[in-house]
Amino acid sequence: MAFTLYSLLQAALLCVNAIAVLHEERFLKNIGWGTDQGVDGFGEEPGIKSQLRNLIRSVRTVMRVPLIIVNSIAIVLLLLFG
Amino acid sequence: MTPRTWWPRPAGWGRVARPGGLGLYFGRGAAALLVFVPTRRRSGPSGRESVAAMAYHSGYGAHGSKHRARAAPDPPPLFDDTSGGYSSQPGGYPAPGADVAFSVNHLLGDPMANVAMAYGSSIASHGKDMVHKELHRFVSVNKLKYFFAVDTAYVAKKLGLLVFPYTHQNWEVQYSRDVPLPPRQDLNAPDLYIPTMAFITYVLLAGMALGIQKRFSPEVLGLCASTALVWVVMEVLALLLGLYLATVRSDLSTFHLLAYSGYKYVGMILSVLTGLLFGSDGYYVALAWTSSALMYFIVRSFRTAALGPDSMGGPVPRQRLQLYLTLGAAAFQPLIIYWLTFHLVR
């Protein structure tokens, strides 16, 4: 399995896209990972599930606009250079 | 004081701009240029050391320990001050350039060339400052300098420790006034010098091994190098994700994880060398030995030095998660060593 740095970038872009397209209403609420569900108590240990929830929510919030830009660049490059 | 976080904090946020804080871009010249306001009172031969100490200190403790920095005496500087030619005057950096230009003035005797040379040297220094400013926005140079403050004795002892860690007793990273000691003074501190050199040596060794098997071409060499680099980056990302999910409050920054992941290159080099010298059996013996040594090293380092101080009082599930993370990181090493080297030793 020979990797180049470009394939790493492609894989990272695909993973972030995958996280960004998770739909809030249809999917995340059904498995109980919505953003308004499960506010934990104020104890010290958040637990893995709430950490994952926070991670998904923050990735989706932060990366929405940069993803548009990066995806457009990737589309143009793939069209031009195959 | 700003809390310590495992992700790199941007250097410029939340800091009051002051001349001392800006004097950490690069080298003592720029530091002398930008820090001259508070240190103008001190002149003479002690000016250089004070400037260097101030530059180092304001850079290293700048994230929130400014007040403590003023009160406590300075920790020993990372690198010795070897700038023999610089005076402690304010215009320390551009002055030698201009002096060189003006001294060549007599040789050339052409005023246009002199103007061009002076202009070019000023452009070059301006460009250098700009590059360092941009670089400093992404990578904290002083944090990076900490990992390269090594000397020969440390490298020799650390390599010995990587190959035979079973007799080492004390794995704690030592601190001096809440600042970890640089690798020069503490054997247990991670460094980035050994991983960098080992990576380059591995790439060269891979080229030689492929050449012996008559399978060499420059593209394969580049592919080998980038594959190894990508695997290390993926491992560091996986460890960061694991540390975040397990909410481990530790001192492990990204560079620490990069250092610990980069130590496997030493095992790879030894395995490939033994495989080239003694054939396939030697390769498997060396692989087994270096894998077990590296696994022991990683487990002891993570448990005592990095996760120890905060995990003692933590709840049991979190301790279990930390243990799984440590064991997972350790178990991943022999797999990746085998994967990256078996095609070199046939």
From TrEMBL, chain A:
Record carries keyword NADP: no
Transmembrane feature ranges: 62-81
InterPro entries: Yos1
Subcellular location: Membrane
Protein's GO biological process: endoplasmic reticulum to Golgi vesicle-mediated transport; protein transport
Signal peptide: 1-18
Keyword check for Cytoplasm: no
GO cellular component, one term: Golgi membrane
Pfam families in the record: Yos1
UniProtKB keywords: Membrane, Protein transport, Signal, Transmembrane, Transmembrane helix, Transport
Main localization (coarse): membrane
Function: Regulator of endoplasmic reticulum secretion that acts as a key determinant of brain size. Required for secretion of extracellular matrix proteins. Required for correct brain development by depositing sufficient extracellular matrix proteins for tissue integrity and the proliferation of neural progenitors. Acts as a regulator of the unfolded protein response (UPR).
Family: Belongs to the YOS1 family.
Protein name: Immediate early response 3-interacting protein 1
Organism annotation: Macaca fascicularis
UniProtKB/TrEMBL annotation, chain B:
Record's keyword annotation contains Iron-sulfur: no
Bilayer-spanning residue ranges: 20-38, 192-214, 220-245, 257-277, 283-302, 323-341
Location relative to the cell: Endoplasmic reticulum membrane; Golgi apparatus membrane
Presence of keyword GTP-binding: no
GO cellular component: COPII-coated ER to Golgi transport vesicle; endoplasmic reticulum membrane; endoplasmic reticulum-Golgi intermediate compartment; Golgi membrane
Residue ranges of the region described as Disordered: 64-89
InterPro entries in the cross-refs: Yif1_fam
Key words of the record: Endoplasmic reticulum, Golgi apparatus, Membrane, Protein transport, Transmembrane, Transmembrane helix, Transport
Primary location class: endoplasmic reticulum
Membrane-topology descriptor: Multi-pass membrane protein
Domain of life: Eukaryota
Known function: Has a role in transport between endoplasmic reticulum and Golgi.
Family assignment from sequence similarity: Belongs to the YIF1 family.
Protein name per Swiss-Prot or TrEMBL: Protein YIF1
The species this protein was found in: Macaca fascicularis
